[in-house]
From TrEMBL:
Protein's cellular compartments: Membrane
Function: Required for the export of heme to the periplasm for the biogenesis of c-type cytochromes.
Organism: Sphingobacterium arenae
Pfam families membership: Cytochrom_C_asm (PF01578)
Name listed for the protein in its UniProt record: Heme exporter protein C
Main location: membrane
Length: 221
């Protein structure tokens, strides 16, 4: 029970953010209207993705320093889990963009950067599957992963701030916190972010444990 407190906390926080996000009060905003509720679901997906990719980079660095296969397995499962959150983030963003901007995929720097970053991490998984020798696969994938993370930050965070963008917080636009969220929304928003990050880490640990069992079975066979 002591080791599971953060998992229970994550479930409670996500459940609370979903209920309040769907039923709680939101400010009456021009153009956004009730779609502002999507900020509780769309934005936390990206925070969870960033957290998982960061975990992956940390364990890739650890693998290069000590050669422990378990660190490599954690790195790849963090990416696998992060891509799931990335896809959900893209889908919820497309739905939101279609309602507020009139098209599901506008020519926007952050949107395009997110797509490129997604392809970049999918290429990481393809690269791993293309290499059969375990140590070679782990080292090459770890090096790729370490370089991919800062490129992803540039594509999704830095470049949109330097160019025109429809997204809040990019292209000179104010952030949601500055413009759209009131004091009733902020606690729910931060609860959703922390909750989904905890759930993401939990899913990653489950995938890691499954990967360990599969590896032990393959060694026995």
């Amino acid at each position: 029970m002591r080791q599971s407190w953060w998992k229970i906390l994550g479930l409670v926080m996500v459940a609370a953010s979903i209920v309040v996000g769907l039923l709680g009060p939101v400010p009456a905003l021009f153009l956004l209207h009730e779609t502002i509720r999507n900020v509780y679901f769309h934005v936390p997906m990206w925070f969870a993705m960033f957290a998982l990719y960061l975990i992956s980079v940390i364990y890739s660095i650890r693998y290069l320093s000590n050669g422990r296969i378990n660190d490599d397995l954690i790195a790849v499962e963090a990416v696998n889990t992060g891509i799931v959150f990335c896809i959900i983030g893209l889908l919820t963003g497309m739905q939101w963009a279609n309602i507020t901007w009139g098209m599901a995929w506008p020519n926007d720097a952050k949107t395009n950067g997110s797509a490129i970053a997604t392809l970049m991490y999918l290429a990481y998984l393809v690269l791993r599957n293309a290499l059969e020798e375990e140590q070679k696969r782990g080292k090459i994938a770890a090096i790729y992963n370490i370089f991919a993370f800062p490129v992803m930050i540039v594509l999704m965070y830095i470049m949109p701030k330097m160019t025109d963008s429809l997204h809040p917080g990019s292209g000179g636009n104010g952030t949601f916190g500055d413009l759209d969220m009131d004091n009733q929304m902020r606690p729910v928003f931060y609860t959703a972010i922390i909750g989904w990050m905890l759930i993401g880490v939990w899913i990653c640990t489950l995938r890691y444990r499954v990967r360990l069992l599969e590896r032990k079975r393959n060694l026995i066979d």
